[in-house]
């Protein structure tokens, strides 16, 4: 297992070296070097913001091709509940699930089923007490990684339960093994994902040794083929087995409302989430039991691998769940819960730290403060760093030079007698009066 | 070792900016590699002080000296001053106006919280002149 596997990658040919992604990255993990955006691996949390913001579509999510299904004797589709919000005039979830079967999957297992189990487990844990409050949701892998790299003091607040996707994969595969007699490696479990962060969570899971998911397909990738199959369905097969609670996990606030208590906060969108975590660190909230965080606007429906606008998808899911029972999946015995626990704590990865040696870090910080004073404080991004301060950090850590700043470069050139023009006018060294 | 010295203006005109200076200090301390528990205590103490300056003194200045083993903070304002410092240190005592209480502040826990989270705290105040709050928080 690599420590920092990433599911966001760069298409070098499409990247123009502009400043859109470096400015939006919540962990300042991108720099433009030699005209191309480079991701600083240990800082990236796979939130997908850069994919969302890139006007040239140069940032791509990595996911598996549909042909990967051919590698297995038996395949199981694990649809995220977000998938249900992608279709117009859908009256019954069974159309989606039947469509997946018609696409060639041997069976389907709704992730919303396991979401109901995780909700049940969370309710029990909070009721039992003993957790560090408020408990922070771990369903969004990007959020777990954000806390890991930026919020050391909140690492002990995270809910140490595996995600609905991971729980669903394990249960689906075990049931299929028992049903078919096939071996573990002959069965392929495919998560149908709204986002690349889930790809990372499969390749490099936190809290479990190995994921039971074998492949991650993008909702946007399977959408046309699935829609075609769904349009041909006469009578859908009755496969859906989850209620309002499970299906609602697609939207921000869904996981929280499943706890049936009032003291919760649900934040979505990276900037909002960061503001909440900052405040939480300062202990500025009063009584709160639960904090739900989603990197994407609106929750999982806002993932970059979806096809529908998040708010449209949300409205459709609200309509779809209307006549569903509250919850169809429950923990039968307390013992069942032990398997849902993480096998470790969340360890803070101090990737923003300047140095492991505090005194050296102090010296470097003093250097940053000196450099910041000579930089123009425009945060223009032309040097390839997201802000003047970030450039100063890069200079101190010897990843950039002072004259990467075009304003410094201009001064240097002028004082060396080289005329430099920024605005089409020739500069002669003396300031032109206008 | 010479400290890293920062001076922040805490604006009194806009309540919504309160807490920005302590947020910036927090980021610096994370980069330097301060212990998370110390960062939390520093952030809370400084935040409470910042809010006090905005509520009672129409803003002021936050001076922060970061040493490898401690952070020293001086919050200074030219506000109305505190008439009875001992009384102000009592939990639940507050002179905050109603509109601030409506936002959830003014519970009379500001100064007691600073005391609680710092290793050393001292108040110099003169009515009509202003207030200085000195605090020291040990690093590890």
Description:
The complex is a heterodimer of chains A (434) and B (140). With 434 residues, chain A is of the alpha/beta class. Chain A has three domains: 8-61, Alpha-Beta Plaits, CATH 3.30.70.20; 66-125 and 162-251 and 299-340, Rossmann fold (3-Layer(aba) Sandwich); 358-415, Electron transport complex subunit B, putative Fe-S cluster (3-methyladenine DNA Glycosylase II, Chain A, domain 3). Chain A contains 15 helices and eleven strands. Chain A has helices at residues 20-24, 49-53, 93-102, 111-128, 141-150, 164-180, 197-203, 219-231, 244-248, 254-257, 270-281, 310-320, 358-374, 388-396, 406-415, and strands spanning 8-10, 30-33, 36-39, 59-61, 74-79, 107-108, 135-136, 187-193, 215-218, 264-268, 290-294. In chain A, the strands form four sheets. A four-stranded parallel β-sheet of chain A has the order 6-5-8-9, with helices on both faces. In chain A, β8, α7 and β9 form a beta-alpha-beta unit. In chain A, α4 (111-128) crosses α6 and α13 packs across α14. The longest helix of chain A has 18 residues, at 111-128. The radius of gyration of chain A is 24 Å and the shape is globular. The relative contact order of chain A is 0.15. Chain B has one domain (4-138): 2-Layer Sandwich (Heat Shock Protein 90), CATH 3.30.565. Chain B is built from five helices and five strands. The longest helix of chain B has 22 residues, at 36-57. In chain B, β4 and β5 form a beta hairpin. With 140 residues, chain B is α+β, with helices and mostly antiparallel strands. Chain B is globular. Chain B has helices at residues 20-32, 36-57, 85-88, 98-101, 110-117, and strands at residues 4-11, 59-66, 70-77, 120-126, 130-138. In chain B, strands 1-2-3-5-4 form a five-stranded antiparallel β-sheet, covered by helices on one side. The mean pLDDT of chain B is 88. The interface between A and B is medium-sized, with 25 and 25 residues.
